[in-house]
Amino acid sequence: MIQFHVYPGGVKRIVTFSFDDGSGNDARLIRLMDQYGLRGTFHLNGINHRNDTEEQRISTRELYSRHEIACHTLSHGWPSRMPSGSLVTETMQDRMVLEQIAGYPVTGMSYPSGSYDDAVIKAMAACGIEYSRTTKATNDFDLPYDLLEWHPTCHFKDAAPCIEHFLQGLDSQWVKPLLYIWGHSHELRSEQDWADMEHLLSSVAGRSEIWYATNGEIADYLHAQRLLKVSVDEKHFYNPSALDVWVERDKRERICIPAGQHLTLNE
Question: How do residues 49-77 score in pLDDT, each as one tens digit?
Answer without folding.
Answer: 999 999 999 999 999 999 999 999 999 99
